Every structure is written in C-alpha cells, then in structure tokens.
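Two quick folds needed for the group meeting slides. Do the first one here.
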Amino acid sequence: MMTKDNHQVKMHDGVPLDVGGGIEAHGIDHIPANERYGRARQLIGIWATSQANYVVLVMGGVLVSMGLNFWQALAVIVIGNLFSIMTGIISASGPASGTPSQIIQKALFGPKGNLVNQVFTGWMVNVIFLALNWTGAAYIIFAVLDRWGVKTDDLLKGTIISVLAVITLVISVYGYNVITNAYKYISWAFLVIFGLATIFLLTAVKGDVNATAPLTGTDFWIAAFAGVSIMACTPISYTNGADFARYLPVKTPIRNIVGSVAVGYMVPSVLLSALGAYVTAALQSKDPQTAIEGLLPAWFSPVFTIAVVVGTVANNAMTAYSSGLVLQTVGVRLRRSVTVIADGIFGVIITLLAVLVWDFIDAMNTLLQLIVVTVAPLMSLYLADMWLRRNTYDGRALEFATPTSQYWYSNGYNIAGIVAFLAGFAGALLTVFTSFYVGPVNNWLGGLDISFEVGIILPAVIYLLAKGKKLKV
C-alpha cells in the first residue's frame, strides 16, 4: 500500500503504519472506509486514561482553597464535568468526516480562516496543556524525592521534565494504534492504584469536611462561577475529539460515541477531583498540592507517583498527537511524527518556566481561565455547525478545499463563523477575571466571571441566526 506522499506502509488493525517501526502513517489526510475499524467503546479507555492524572486531583482541592466547602465544590465538579458530553458530541464528527478536528474546522472558518484559528485555538492551547500536565507530574516527583532526602536543584528538575517529555513524545510519534491499544490496559491499572490511594487518603484524613461554613450570597456565586469555568475548561478544550474517533466506521452510532467519551472522561475526573476537594476541606489546607501527596504511606508514594507520571504522559501524548496535526494543518510540510517533536520542544520551554519561575497553582488557575476565553467560543461554534449540517461532512472535500469546494465560502473565509467566534471571544475577554487581567465589564458585575457562559452561548446563537437567515457567507 502507498500513502499520498508515496511512502510504503503496512497495516495493523486497520491503521496504516510506516514500514520503519510501526509509526502511524496517516496525518491530517482523510481515512478511507476500508481502513476504518473498531467500536466506540474503545474511546472509554482513551478518555479515562487522559483524566487519571495529578492535575485533576489538585483541581478539586483548588476549588476548596477558593472558599467553597466540600459539598459546594462537589456540585461544581459534577457540573463542570458534564461538559464532557460536548467533547463526546465533537468526537462524533470524526467518523462522519474521516478527518481530524483540525480539518473539520475548515467548515467553521473556511480554509484560509482556519489557518489563523489553528494557531491560536489549536497550537497555543495544546502547548499550554502540555506544560500544565508536565508541571503537575514534575511537582509530585519533586515532592517524593524531597521525602527521600534528594535535593532537587534546577539541573535535576530540568532533567526530570526532559525525561517526561521524551517518553510522551515517543508515544505521540507512534500514534493512534499505540494510544487506543495501550490505554485500555493503563486505565484498568489506574483504577486499582487510584482506588488504593483513595482508601489511604480517606483513612488518613481525620478532619471534618463540614468544619468550614459554606459560602453564601455574592461570594458563593463568584467562587462557583469561577470554579465551573476551571472544571469545564478541560473538557471543552478537547475540540480535537475527532482526532481519536476518525478511524471508527462512519455508521458508528453517535450516542455510543458520546456515551463512551463522557463515561470515560467523567468517572476518573469526578472521583479524583472530589477526592482532592475532600482531603483539602478536611485538613482545611490552603495548599492542596502538598496536602495530598504528604498523606500517602511512604511505601505507596512511589507507586502513586509512577501512576501520576504515566497518567500525565498518557494525557500529554494525546495532546502532543493533536498538536502535531495542527502544525500540518497550518501548512508545515513535515511528517506528523516530526511536528509532534517540534511542539514538544515548545511545551518543555513553558514547563521549565512554570517550574523554575512561576507558582504552579497560580499558573494553573490563570492559564485555565484564559484558555476558557479561547476554547469556549470554538466549542460553541463547532457544535452549532454540527447541528446545522446534522453531522454530515465531506472529508475529502474538506481535505482538499479549493475555490470550487463547498467549503470555500467567500474567498476562503466563512464570514459567519469568523464573526460568531470573534464575538464570543470578545464577550468572554470583557467579562473574565484573572489574577493579572480583569475584563472591563467584569468590574460592573462585581467580580462575577461569566466569561465561560458568554463564550459557550453567544457564538452558537450568532452562527445559527446567520445561517438560518441564509446570509451570504
């Protein structure tokens, strides 16, 4: 078999592989019907593994450190994770088109408009999440080494981060087949390890989760809205969901895809976040990061650390995989395996800054809130476009969009999509609240951050109205 760039490939479970080592051959090109295989339930392991990581555990504790009591934090965790249903819906566009999300988004912005979109909502967001996850894994490794009396100077920290990056990028380079097959086994191992961690933490914690009075009035709403934004940021950032479902047969039921993604995502995310909130509330700690790791038995701590590292690597492998597709989409004429490595280098640089210069918790909160401003409008627009088209996309026409293509719009730009996205982005930017930037409208709201709600609603409304009126786009 030959690929479109005339490289000979072999097949494994329906996925074309490079002859030289089993690396996935496909990049952003359309997956033909004879290479589609598998079932939607494969997605459960992928998404479960992506959420079994330390950052998810810490995020639950962050909600409590913001002032919410445990039960309020638990409600926010559940509400925020429900947005993984959107991730599942987005994923269903993969089998429909046979292409990754980066190509499908040509339908939203037009081929030319999509180039700009991919740089800011694709590449930038992926690199930031690479850094956040590597930083989270690095910090728990540092904590374990400190308990063993090992001094973690800057050289050792840089070495640990580099090793994490190398392992992550190796998995990403090999691609889809490794991710789908390995992750289903990793997810079961995580179930055991994080289950034991839960038992140890619940046993070790002697405090009362009800010791802190619940927030009320304006303070509650400010914290709750900010908390939902933080928790929802991760699922709505997966506007690349089609990347991991595009090998499924085109007739795979949408409900099966949505259900598999949502279940795989929500179960570990809700449980781990709730555990982080529980421990932080019971100890009345202001630093969930150190509180959680410090309660584990000395003999189990290395096991937990390994699980955290593997979870982080697994999650970042998905992110790096998609980031490589982004660079191909914007015109970088290199193999996906090479573009993955290029993105990894940028991610390592940001990680080193986060570890050596910034505070992890502050950096995580700020970056997640700012990412919401970007990804919420994109998710909103993506869902609106899928609704209008009834999830029907011509993958080959999207791949080779030319002036004669139905996706060319006005000189390569889908004006309705671009305007809708920019309106949502501007609205979110005006209402956001972070530690170093406060939107001007946010001042009128008394600090209530509704950037997520504005970003997730406004673009869809504008786009549906524009298309519904059959405006020339």
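Then this one, please, same format:
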Amino acid sequence: MINKQNIRLIFGLKLKQLRQQKGLSFADLSKASGLSVSYLNEIEKGKKYPKEDKIHQIADALEVSFAELTSQELSRNLEPVDQLLKSNFLNELPLDLFGIELSKVVEIIASAPVRVGAFISTLLELSRSHALKEENFYFGALRSYLELNSNYFPEIEKAAEQFCREHSIPAIRPIPVETLQRLLEMQYKYRIVENGLDQYPELQGLRSVFIPKRRELLLNSRLNPMQKAFQFGKEIAFQELDIKERAFTSSLLRANQFEEVLNHARATYFSVALHIPLELFVEDIRSFFRRDKWDGQVFLSIMRKYLANPEMYYHRLTNVLPEFFGLKELFFLRFTHDLKTGQFDIDRELHLSRRHHPHSTALLEHYCRRWKGLKMLEELHKDDAGQIKVGVQRSRYIGTEDEYLCLTIARPSYPDPHKNVSVTLGLLVTEALREKVGFLDDPDIPFRMVNNTCERCSLTDCAERAAPPTVADRRQQIKAMQKRLQEL
C-alpha cells in the first residue's frame, strides 16, 4: 500500500512531467488554472496534495482527465522512481536526520530516472549479494549520524544533569546501584527480577529483558554491579527522554526500524553521561594527558573511579575528546575473539572527521595481527587468570603517513564465557595531539608498522601474518601487466 507521502510525490512528478510536456511555465499553468505559482510549486515538490476541485482546475488547464492526473501509475520513463517508491526503500532511510528532504531525492532521480534508477538498483543488488539486511543500513546510518555530530549531544547531557539535580544524586561517583534500582521501582513503577533470565537458557547471552505489560525488568544473574547499574541507567533514559519506539532487550537483536536503533543509542548515551559526569571526567582526562609518561594503571584508575566498563569509558572519551580537547580525528574499534573458533571480528566502530585506515570488512579477510587490540586478545587468551589488560601502541599504516596513538583495553566478555573483547581508541598523531598529550613521545611506547588485513599487506617479513597476501599480490600482477602494456 502506498503511503500518503508517496501519493503526494507521485502526483507532483506527474504534474511536473505533464506541465513540461505541454511547454508550460509555472506562470502559464498558474494563469490557466487560477492557482498561485507558489502553490503549484509546493504540489510539484510533493509537499502538498490539492483538493478535488483544484485537481479539476489543474486537469482542465493541462487538457487531461481527472482520472489520468490522479492515477498512481507513472509513465514508462519514470518506472525506476515508481519502483523505488513502492519498494519503500527511500522511506526506510533516515534522511531527515541529515537535513535531506525525500522530495529532493525523488526530484534528482526523476531528472534522470533511467541512469539514477540503474545506479540505485546496482546498490541494492550489491547489498543483496553481500547479504546486507535493513539493520545494516540502520546501523550504518546511525554511525554516520554520530560522526556528523562528533558523537556529542548537548541535549542528552542536559537531560542527565537535570535528572541528577531533581533526584539529589551527589556529584561523587560511582552512583550506588541500589539508588538507581530504587528510583526505577519508586519513580517509574518497575519490578526488578534479579534472576529473571535464569529459567530461559536461550536468553543467557542477554543482560536484561523488559516486559512492558508487567513493567518487569528481567536480569541475568551473572551481571556484576557495574553492568547492572548501566542497564538501570538505560531504563531510566527510556523514561526520562520519553522514548516510545524501543527494543526491549539489552542489546538489539533485530532492528525493526531506524527509530529503535537511534533511541537505543540515545539511551546508551544518557546512561554513560549519568555514570560519568561531564565536568569531572574532562578534568580527569586533562590531568592524565599532562603526564609525561604513559601509565596504564592510571588510565584504568579513571575508568574504575566511575565504576565503568571499557565500553562506557571509551564511549565517554569519544564524547569529550573532539568537543573539549579539539582532538577530532579519531577512531574507535571493538574486537571480539571467539574462543571456540579462534575468529576475530569487529562488532562496533566509529570514525570521526573521516574514515580512518583500521575498519571492519565483510570480506572474511584476516585483520592485521599487529593491531594492539588483536595482540592483547591473544595475550588475554593465554592468560588463565583472565584479568583485564591495558596497553598502548603507536601504529603507522603501511604506504601512508598516517600514524595513530592507540589506547587499548582487553577483558573477558560477560556474561558470555566463550568470548573476550578489546576496545581501542586511535588518535591521529597531529600537532593538536602533541599539544594535548604529554606522554605522546614516551620512548617506552612501542611502535609498529601495521595494515588493515593480511590479504592486503605487502610486508614480506611479518612474523604475525595469518594469511597470504592474495589481494596485494594480485595488485602487483596488475601493475606489472599495465607497465608492460605501456611499454608495448
């Protein structure tokens, strides 16, 4: 079924096409129909749909029937537009977040429907070939939105501060988990079920599930106080930010619409801001950056001060470093290490200012084992104690001048006992970084040449190589062929 917005867009496209076929300007059509130029312009842009009497006036002016003008069928040359609108693909994209009007996109497509339609069809075909689903687009759009805003949202910061004031939460952190539980129970009428997921073996990978009809929050019994406090913070966020469209699981298993993905990110941001107050944290990081020697234990002590886990800690770093330190060129990566299969995957990433060299790939290639995040996961796997690890490295990407200061924390995954995870924050080495970070040139910080994947790396003496350089070798073969062809 075609929605109202698409009906307006289709009508506008038909009106524009018929007007141009008749060789009429807006002024000509305005004179013939008795409708204003601005009103006709709004109709063509898909912003307004005229009433029946006005449609008759337009139809008479264009010398077409009422039925022809109101039909939802577009002409043959606009078939690509028709297919796109009926597929609802464009409506699933959160264009409004980026200040883009759907009517503008349709207008661009309509101006060269065959070529643009073919291009979009190609993108859709590629997405099908790589088994990309709607949520892939949603999460990609979310990352772009966060990057566009430098992952800093003042309105959520203010909401978290206001919540603390209204409920007399002291500035000292961490917030006792009992305080947040009491607020959920008394203020929002939640019922907290401590071991609520224990009877559901298939749900043991989740931290919590919210049952809205009973207002019950079922918790995984293996959660530590830190994880419990973070989940309580997210539930408070859903209430305080008046979020209606939300997932009821702690992590998104399947995104039904983009609003769910965005709102999950907003609730996460609120909880992080609640547990790690902005002003205190900025001062802690400023003090740490003044040090002339890297000290991993001091770096970890800041995280522990707020009873935060590494993901919360790094989330807050990506909030404050661009906004308060002017360090806008950075990336964040989270690696998972499946202890059963030995496979390494990137399941979260963020790039600010531009897409940086280390990034995820869906090509089943082997990530560079020289990355600090992977190296530390390998070390963590060998360490029977399974303790949290912290490390630092300066990494330069082969074939470029780009060098990053990489801060990494690796830890066992909870509640999943069969995985370890590492989080890495990479800061591009620039003059701004030199001014802000006193320990940048600490000689004890190791330096490594790195690449994105083994398949794309041309290094011949790499002891950590996990796969042959198939892509790099193929590139060299093509270059040799091109050189020989030029000589011939």
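Slide caption for protein two: The chain has a mean pLDDT of 87.
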